[in-house]
Amino acid sequence: MIQEMWFTALFGQWGWLIAVAIAICINVPIFIWARVKKHLTLLGCLMAGFFGIAYWMINPLFYTLLFVFFISSSILTNYRKKDKKEVQDKFAKGGERDTSQVLANGLGAFIFALGHLLFYVLTNNVIISNAFVYAFIATIGTVNADTWGTEIGILSNDQPYWILNLSQKVERGTSGGVSPKGTGASFIGATIVSIVALIIEALWRNPLSENSTWQIFLFISLTAIVGFIGGLIDSLFGATIQGFFKCTVCGKGTEKRGHCNKPTELQRGSVRFRNDHVNFWASFIAGLIAFGIGCFVYLI
Q1: Helix axes 42-58, 60-78, angle to 10 degrees
Q2: Are 68 and 227 in contact (CB under 8 A)?
Q3: Can you give the pLDDT at residue 84?
Q4: Contact 110, 267 (CB under 8 A)
Q5: Domain that holds residue 217
């Protein structure tokens, strides 16, 4: 039996048209602002706009969580930007997010949102459908945790610790470096996403309303932990398989393949595995963990 979409339930037969109009009215001003403030490139805006409208049409819960991530990450990226300038020289890309970065942060969540849509509309399998919702929350929680941890962590005056050896310190901005301040910010970033999801669920009770309140509260709360773990996985990948290079001119460590107008030398990891790959796989793995736990929670 095909399930009714939220916009049809609210607005009737032509609800999809009203929902699209609302999505355009909400998204266009936001992405004009993002382009003017150089938070996103033009193509990045178009890709983010696609994700935004798709999430809105599937369920406003998804869109709201994307909005929380986008706004908070944009604000934090520009917070004390001058103080981050030297450290950001290590990063492969600057604060203006391009298409690859938007895909890295949004594709995993889109896969889970699409999975939810298919199971919600085409089947009566509430367990799998809702597990996809939790996977989405954890995925967005992971990318938010990573952004918060990075943007706050590099402002710390203390050198971060190497995630593979916590007795060893590394330079600020080094992939795989963790600090108390950055780790705390990472947990807050993941938790905020889950708190917003809980508030939306309490006010709307959709699409999870067919399940008991304790199950809903328990697992949305667990997604904060999974999102935080996803952020740690991101750091672990950054310390192991992500390509990290050394400038042959100035000797600085960097994620860039070129520095001081010269090619850099690979120090560790894979030359093919960039930060965008790290972000995607860390968030996707966190989503899979949440999906698995979500199925288990609804069976007990």
Answers
A1: 150
A2: no
A3: 60
A4: no
A5: 6-297
Beta carbons within 8 Å of 225's beta carbon, 6+ residues apart: 190
Contact 281, 114 (CB under 8 A): no
Q: Is the CB of residue 121 less than 8 Å from the CB of residue 5?
A: yes
| 265 inside domain | yes
What's the full length of the chain, in residues?
A: 300
> In this structure, is residue 123 part of a structural domain?
yes
Domain count, the chain: 1
pLDDT of residue 230: 95
Separation CA 198–CA 271 (nearest Å): 40
1 located within any domain:
no
Render pLDDT for 235-287 as a digit per residue (tens, 0 to 9).
Answer: 999 899 998 888 888 877 777 788 788 888 888 888 888 889 999 999 999 99
**pLDDT tens across 153-208, in order?**
888 778 889 999 988 988 877 788 899 999 999 999 999 999 999 888 877 755 55
Task: Please list the helix, strand and coil fractions of the chain in percent, rounded to the nearest 5, in that order.
Answer: 65, 10, 25
**With contact defined as beta carbons under 8 Å apart, do 58 and 113 qualify?**
yes
Verdict on whether the full-model pTM lies above 0.70: yes
As a three-state string, the secondary structure of 248-287 is CCCCCEECCCEECCEECEEEECECCCCHHHHHHHHHHHHH
**244 beta partners:** 268
